[in-house]
Amino acid sequence: MITVFLLDDHEVVRRGVHELLAMEPDIEVVGEAGTAAEALARIPAAHPQVAVLDVRLPDGSGVEVCREIRSLDDRVRCLMLTSYADDEALFDAIMAGASGYVLKAIRGNELLSAVRDVAAGKSLLDPDATRRVLEKLRGGESGERDEREEQLERLTDQERRILTLIGDGLTNRAIGQELHLAEKTIKNYVSSLLSKLGMERRSQAAAYVARLQEQKRR
Asked: Do residues 95 and 205 touch, judged by C-beta distance below 8 A?
């Protein structure tokens, strides 16, 4: 039996997906939420194998929910469901550890197949889109890389440690536990290092760390 949790702020969409999944003998819906906050509170208790997450939510993003949930339990497979084909959102989803990214225009039988494939550990990320994302991770003009290296030198030792942990996919809470610091303190460190690196989001910092690690391996 595949257990599934649904997150979508549109009740009609959520009910439709619930009914579609509930008709299948091998799938059980174990919980629902309409906001990111509800999902973060309910998913750990529900222990689903698959979390079907709407990307755009009134109080946040399904991508952030994916990152938080997988930092707590990486056995949960996240399938992102969205109305928009957006490389930036796909990039964020991959960095958050999502297993799949599908459009809401998907047919019912295709969604069922997607849930089963994700539950089986398969990746449903579009190869072309994934290639573009990996090029972003590995790419960048040399001038941009030089500028990033200069910015990296501005970080304190503590900020560098936190940047590395961001690259490992840890949340602020998890980083705080690792470094024995308050979550609010970590949040302040993250804001500072993002500013020094000329970035706005954690996903950009995570991508930067991945790019540095890739360069070291070469």
From this structure: no
pLDDT digits (tens, 9 = 90+) for 91-104: 778 778 888 888 88
- The residue type of 67 is R
Tens of pLDDT along 163-190? 989 888 888 889 999 999 999 999 999 9
Helix (H) or strand (E) segment spanning residue 184: helix 183-197
At 123 the three-state DSSP class reads coil
Give the C-alpha separation, 214 to 205, whole Å.
Answer: 14
pLDDT score recorded for residue 143: 47
Measured CA to CA, the distance from residue 43 to residue 15 in angstroms comes to: 18
| Residue 186: how many other CB atoms lie within 10 Å | 24
Instruction: Tell me the CB-side half-sphere exposure of residue 52, using CA atoms within 13 A.
Output: 34
Distance of alpha carbon 75 from alpha carbon 157, whole angstroms: 32
Work out the average pLDDT over 107-125: 90
